[in-house]
Design a protein that fits this description.
This is Transposase IS66 family protein. By secondary structure, the protein is mainly alpha-helical. Helices cover about 50% and strands about 0% of the residues. It has a domain at about 15-70. It is built from three helices and no strands. α1 crosses α2, α1 (about 15-30) crosses α3 (about 50-70) and α2 (about 35-45) crosses α3. The radius of gyration is 18 Å and the shape is elongated.
Length: about 90
């Protein structure tokens, strides 16, 4: 999980940048709700409110979404069949 360079703005927050980065990354990577992310962090011993998570996602989410999109492979050249490249021999 890459930590975006924009997270240097986290100075003065209660939680470390790793906690914020993980929460925002998990929300965007797996399309989780804030309640799901809250439960995920609670299992790891971090108590965060849904409002705080929503604030983090609104503030830092765009950077993570862009990083995740860059990391995903593209469909072109991956052996995906398209309608124009498929010919029936019947």
């Amino acid at each position: 999980m890459p930590i975006a360079a924009e997270l240097s703005r986290l100075k003065g927050y209660r939680f470390t940048c790793e906690v914020v980065a993980y929460a925002v990354w998990a929300k965007h990577r797996f399309a989780l709700s804030t309640a799901d992310v809250e439960d995920l962090l609670a299992e790891r011993g971090v108590t965060v409110s849904r409002e705080t998570l929503r604030d983090w996602v609104n503030r830092f989410g765009r950077n993570f979404a862009d990083c995740i999109k860059l990391d995903r492979p593209t469909a072109a050249g991956q052996g995906i069949w398209t309608k124009s490249s498929f010919r029936s021999t019947t």
